[in-house]
TrEMBL record:
Active site: E241
InterPro entries to which the protein is assigned, alphabetical: Ald_DH/histidinol_DH, Ald_DH_C, Ald_DH_CS_CYS, Ald_DH_CS_GLU, Ald_DH_N, Aldehyde_DH_dom, LUC3-like
Aldehyde dehydrogenase domain location: 18-460
Name listed for the protein in its UniProt record: Aldehyde dehydrogenase family protein
């Protein structure tokens, strides 16, 4: 399966759900559509396989996870091409090759991260040790924006801790995750990891199924709320990485030229289709025009096109509905008198879901483009004069996944960062995740941590042995 043709042939089925290339509208393959009976069968097989997998121990499971990462490396070009064709992100830059490299890195980090029993009491009164055991079968439901990468975030730690995993990819990008399953299952025992593609009814069946000890979901806040309600009867443990509307605050001592590159990619990586992308930017009045101009130059010089074209650094939006959301928010901003600095005029007659990189300023703080998550390449830039006012606006929404502070004074930036209500606040960068650094949201952006030691704990159950 080291060629695109072989990989696609392994996951596409006649008469399945048609999957199209968002850059061309061409059908690239057909994904199987699983039924509730398929789910019952797979969960039963996973429960049987999980016991033997857990019994292998951390060392052997880690060896096999590293072997799975090696298998990803061997099929990296084929998987990157499939992601690019299905999801739309370019091969180049921070695109599909970058995504596949992240898959291997996250699997290897999950294998290498130690989680030793912790002595929490050892004195004359007695002793107590805290350890973490496998939860059982993990149900994972993924999004369409980083389909393979986020799958690895759910898969790697879960397998490392001795769980089996049943995963449902988004119906918009099922082939990439099915392909990842084909690749890693060359080395994993049967039944330990299964990908079931299907529609929202399959996702609903998973969240209500009593066979899952743990559910993991990355997606919208509304769907996350539905998962909490549907799973309540069974009380599985939950990790929910939900919607965000990440603010960035540029302090008056920042250097616009120095921060422009990271600002741009913080907002426009994956054409803005990233939960922890920079989605609203507050700039001190003294720097406003300079920051806007620096970002305008980056937008103009960054090529957008079909993902398979090597020169492309930005691609189309993955779905036509997401195009309509972004387009509608920008049109509302225009109608309300906001100034479009660049972009904002898509070619609606052309094939594909291409929306140009768009900067909007002189916009009110309560405009829909500011208070609703656009999830696309349209960044509102707001002036502020008083930092307390900027912080109030940044913290004013019921989301808190990520945020950033931009300054030439790191100590001052950290002081401001501590006042921002978000699970992660970056300084002079935005959206940079690392497999060893815990990541998760607050407020409407969900709960539970991923990555590093905390991520291993999140897919396990604690047990205290006291004597």
């Amino acid at each position: 399966m080291d060629t695109y043709e072989n990989l696609l042939a392994a996951v596409t089925v006649p008469g399945g759900h048609a999957v199209t290339d968002p850059a061309t509208d061409e059908v690239i393959g057909h994904a199987p559509v699983a039924t509730p009976d398929d789910l019952e069968r797979v969960v039963g097989a996973a429960r049987s396989a999980q016991r033997e997998w857990d019994a292998l121990g951390h060392e052997e499971r880690s060896r096999l996870l590293n072997a799975a990462a090696d298998a990803v490396d061997r099929s990296a070009d084929a998987l990157a091409e499939l992601i690019s064709r299905e999801q739309g992100k370019p091969l180049s830059g921070r695109g599909s090759r970058f995504e596949v490299g992240g898959v291997a890195a996250w699997l290897r980090t999950a294998a290498a991260t130690p989680l030793e029993p912790e002595t929490v009491l050892d004195d004359a009164s007695g002793s107590a040790t805290l350890r973490y055991r496998a939860a059982g079968v993990v149900g994972a439901i993924g999004p369409w924006n980083w389909p393979a990468l986020i799958a690895s975030w759910q898969l790697g730690p879960s397998l490392r801790m001795g769980n089996a995993v049943v995963m449902k990819p988004s119906e918009h990008t099922p082939l990439s995750v099915l392909a990842l399953g084909e690749i890693v299952n060359q080395v994993l025992p049967a039944g330990v990891f299964t990908v079931l593609s299907g529609d929202r009814d399959l996702g609903a069946a998973m969240t209500a199924h009593p066979g899952f000890a743990k559910l993991m979901f990355t997606g919208s806040t509304r769907t996350g709320q539905a998962i909490v309600a549907a799973s309540a009867r069974n009380l599985p443990r939950l990790t929910l990485e939900l919607g965000g509307n990440d603010p960035g605050i540029v302090l008056p001592d920042a250097d616009p030229a120095a921060i422009a590159e990271e600002l741009f990619w913080g907002a426009f990586i994956n054409t803005g289709q990233t939960c922890a992308a920079l989605k609203r930017l507050y700039v001190h009045d003294s720097l406003h025009e300079a920051v806007v101009e620096a970002l305008r130059q980056k937008a103009v010089e960054t090529p957008m096109g079909r993902g398979l074209d090597e020169q492309s650094l930005l691609g189309p939006l993955t779905t036509a509905s997401q195009f309509d959301i972004v387009d509608g928010l920008v049109e509302k901003a225009k109608s309300a008198g906001a100034r479009v600095v660049v972009g904002g005029e898509p070619d609606r007659a052309a094939p594909g879901n291409f929306y140009p990189s768009t900067l909007v300023t002189d916009i009110s703080a309560d405009a829909p483009l500011v208070v609703e998550e656009q999830f696309g390449p349209a960044l509102p830039i707001l002036r502020y004069r008083d930092l307390d006012e900027a912080l109030e606006q940044a913290n004013g929404l019921d989301v808190g996944l990520g945020a950033s502070v931009w300054s030439s004074d790191p100590d001052r930036a950290r002081q401001v960062a501590e006042r921002v209500e978000a699970g992660t606040v970056w300084v002079n960068k935005h959206g940079a995740v690392h497999p060893m650094v815990p990541f998760g949201g607050v407020k409407g952006s969900g709960y539970g941590m991923e990555f590093g030691v905390e991520g291993l704990k999140a897919v396990a159950v604690p047990q205290v042995i006291s004597s």
